[in-house]
Amino acid sequence: MKRFGCTRVMLAATLGLSVVGLAWMSPAQAARLKDVVNIEGVRENPLTGFGLVVGLNGTGDSSTSFTNQSMKMMLERMGVSTQQGVKVKNVAAVIVTAMLPPFARQGGVLDATLSSLGDAKSLQGGTLILTPLKGADGKIYAVSQGPVSVGGFAVEGGNQKVQKNHPTVARIAGGAIVEREIPFELNNESGLQLSLKNPDFTTANRVVRAINGAIGQPVAQARDAGTVMVQLPPEFQGRVVDFVSRMEILEVEPDTTAQVVINERTGTIVIGENVRVSTVALAHGDLSIRITETPMVSQPNPMSKGATVAATNTQVDVQEKNGRVIEMPEGVTLGELVRGLNSIGVSPRDLIAILQSIKAAGALQANLQVM
Q: Radius of gyration (Cα) for the chain, nearest Å?
């Protein structure tokens, strides 16, 4: 059986929009400055290392050469002679990752994530052997070791297998210890560079006005849509932490461009509050075509020396619903647009098709992003 569906859409001038589990953004409200900008130099740094997880119950790597080589080298460093090849299924090679937060000090602990490299079936019940974690510069900033925690399982027997989540990815809470600090003295800075998380000229200007208004001096200046330079006032020299703590609680109302985001895989559309549409007349109908194929076999009479013939009986059923025309005036708001589309009962997939067609015609006054 095959089924095809199509939708007829007529645009008289402009516009259209759509959603599925429709979600839209509420009107913009003031946000704290700490939620709008980042301070240059104050960020996390990724760490990576190669390690071995031991103690697995036969669920480790079975035929990966680098696991055997790494295990042999580890044993030799411990003074254990390994003249013959080593092949065990209780060991798995993993990549260990962690994020080094800003201002991390020696002795601090980090969460480590382990991901299997070979053909291990599960890391459940294993223990990570001491693994150095390096930064992008090749230096060791932390070391990780300890029993792993797996948020899933995999059980198989015969021809059946039951699996929950991903048993080849594990985590060690607080399983990495910081051994090296990243040199950064915030109190020695004479100025700060703020980077907007969502670059926008209007938002950058509002950040400047909020900072200068709170300090009472023109210490902030926007360099571009994504960067604001702040000169430290004389009374705050050597007291950068105090200055930042007062500045980051300032409230700023971020501005955004009109944006519509479509996720075609899930049929979800998110519509920004600034989305506007022009005058439009929309006609929506539904045409459904159902094709049914029934196999038939023609058998010859006994002793007739005839041949068995296979045939197919095809039946086509066409149904069409009447469409309705809805007119939306120019400059309709998001709420009016959603109510208009819901009133004609269009499906999520039809809404996405309508929205893309209207954007192609230049009627949708917003950026359209398809995921």
A: 32
